[in-house]
Design goal:
By secondary structure, the protein is of the alpha/beta class. Helix content is about 35%, strand content about 20%.
Length: about 210
């Protein structure tokens, strides 16, 4: 399989790229600044571009079997995530590609949520300090919900930038923990390429 990766030069994205390569996947990676990619392998093709630019998104997705995004908000551009989702959805529709997997935080609200006190408190704080960023994520969720894609949004708490691996806990209702290892997150994301259990769902994961 050839996988399109958006946000692969970010903190979580770097672990995702390594995990994809370790499992033998070919990657087309969109990078606004290719110099930020410190991991190199013949399986990686770097496309210089911006997720806010539709031709760049189309170019990185073309020829892929699935797309994974670990894109986070850009400084000074709080609408980046929903713009990227709009472009990804359009490109995947034109190219007849269905599987899309995305990483997000705890703040996205879905109809089946039963968030506990701790999660609701964290979300309240995030919405207070970053209302436009959180609103943008919610808009991205709405766009995906209305699309024909086989999408999964993986919601996670604070990401620990470590190669350590521990037991993963998964819930469709509330965050089961406070942290998740970036390595464990990457493994879970890659597993979703062949696992259809969470299509059209937003699982919470943590260690």
């Amino acid at each position: 399989m050839n996988i399109g990766v958006i946000g692969g030069t970010g903190k979580a994205g770097k672990y995702l790229v390594k995990q994809l390569v370790r499992q033998g996947y070919s990657i087309k990676l969109l990078a606004r600044n290719p110099l930020k990619l410190t991991y190199h392998d013949p399986l990686i093709e770097v496309i210089h571009g911006n997720a806010r630019d539709y031709p760049s998104v189309y170019q990185v997705i073309k020829g892929c079997d699935a797309v994974i995004s670990t894109l986070g908000p850009s400084r000074g551009e709080p609408d980046t995530c929903s713009i990227a989702v709009k472009h990804i959805n359009q490109a995947m529709k034109e190219l007849n590609i269905k599987r899309y997997i995305e990483v997000a935080g705890l703040a996205i609200d879905t109809p089946g949520d039963r968030k506990g006190f701790r999660t609701r408190l964290i979300v309240k704080i995030l919405k207070w300090f970053f209302p436009r960023v959180i609103g943008d994520r919610q808009k991205g969720y709405a766009l995906l919900s209305a699309s024909d894609l086989k999408w999964t949004i993986v919601r996670c708490p604070m990401i620990e930038l470590t190669d350590s691996t521990r037991e993963i806990k998964i819930s469709l209702f509330d965050s089961p923990g406070r942290k998740v290892s970036a390595s464990d997150l990457a493994k879970f994301l890659v597993s979703q390429l062949t696992d259809e259990q969470y299509i059209h769902k937003c699982p919470f994961i943590s260690n």
